[in-house]
Amino acid sequence: MTPNEESEVRRRQKSRSIVMAVLLGAFVILMFAITISKIKAGMHP
After folding, report:
1. What residues form the membrane-spanning segments (predicted)?
2. CA–CA distance, 8 with 36 (Å, rounded to integer)
3. Residues 6+ positions from 9 with CB-CB distance below 8 Å
4. Per-residue pLDDT tens for 24-43?
5. Per-residue pLDDT tens digits for 1-25
6. Can you tell me the distance from the alpha carbon of 7 to that of 5, in angstroms, rounded to the nearest whole number?
7. CA distance 14 to 21
8. What is the CA radius of gyration of the chain?
């Protein structure tokens, strides 16, 4: 593999990692928001 191809592979891996991190963060925020809303719904009979 040439150095040029290797840097391209690294660039793709980095961009894929960033996308996965953003998706994971969005999932965590969504779960947190759902949990908070369920807790608040349970407080009001």
Report:
1. 18-39
2. 42
3. 1
4. 999 999 999 999 999 998 87
5. 898 999 999 999 999 999 999 999 9
6. 5
7. 11
8. 20
Q: Which two tokens stand for residue 16?
A: 């894929």
Q: Count CA atoms closer than 13 A to 29's CA, side-chain side.
A: 6
Residues 17, 12: Cα–Cα separation, whole Å: 9
Say how many C-beta atoms besides its own lie within 10 A of residue 9's C-beta. 10
* 23-32 contact pairs (CB < 8 A, 24+): none
Task: Pinpoint the alpha helices (H) of 1-45.
Answer: 3-43
